Amino acid sequence: MARAKATKRKVRQGPKERVRVLITRARIQRRIQALAKEIRRDFPHEPLHLVSVLKGGVFFLTDLARNLTGKVSFDFIAVSSYGQDTHSSGQVRLTRDLDSSIEGRTVIVVEDILDTGMTLQYLLRLFQHRNPKHLRVAVLLDKPARRIAAVRADYVGFTIPNEFAVGYGLDYSERYRNLPYVGALTLGAKKKRPEK
Question: Of 42, 85, 99, 115, which one is the catalytic site residue?
Answer without folding.
Answer: 115
